Amino acid sequence: MNLVEFILISFALIIDSMIVCTVNGMTYKHLTKTQTLNIVILFGLTQGLFITAGYFLGMVFADFLSQYAGIVTAAIFTIIGVAKMKGALTSDEHEIEQKETLSYKVITIQAVATSLDAFAVGISFSFMAVNLLLTIGTVTTITILFSLLAIKFGQKSGELLGSKAEFLGGLFLLFVAARALL
């Protein structure tokens, strides 16, 4: 594999991360620079870590992952998506504007759920002649950069959409959940 192929694989892996980061930006409009950097670095490092784990564990967990990863990812994002939509329907504009905190627990769950496919890719890489450091570096860097752009895009979109942003964010997460089942 060459750098172009790694970049394409990176983009395929980070689509879910970008959607989740966009939703976070829409919902939590007042994230500080430090919070934003913590989020994108966690998402990037988690992608890289899961590729590494998949690569080294190879076929040990391949059967389990192929059977349950989509279901686990779908369940997580369905719960989060429905909660966001419900919150949007039951909150007034003032309450939605006040959402400023995004817990590290939620961010970690999001990062892990969006990285399960990276584990599967890591397993497939264990059967190929790949430069693992190049792969991890490329995926991690692209995830960080595009997650940052996604948060900023989400913040701008959230300003334009107002109270509809959280509901739309919930729909996006349901899309990620449905996609995980395919």
Structural features, described:
- It contains eight helices and no strands.
- With 182 residues, it is mostly helical.
- The protein has one domain.
- Helix 2 (33-57) packs parallel to helix 6, helix 3 runs antiparallel to helix 6 (116-125) and helix 3 (62-90) packs antiparallel against helix 8 (164-181).
- It is globular and about 50 Å long.
Features of the shown structure:
182 residues; mainly alpha; 8 helices; 84% helix
How many domains? The number is 1
Beta-strand portion reads: under 5%
Mean pLDDT: 81
The gross shape turns out to be: globular
Q: What distance separates the N and C termini? A: 26 Å
Secondary-structure blueprint of this entry?
Layout: H1 3-27, H2 33-57, H3 62-90, H4 93-97, H5 104-113, H6 116-125, H7 132-161, H8 164-181
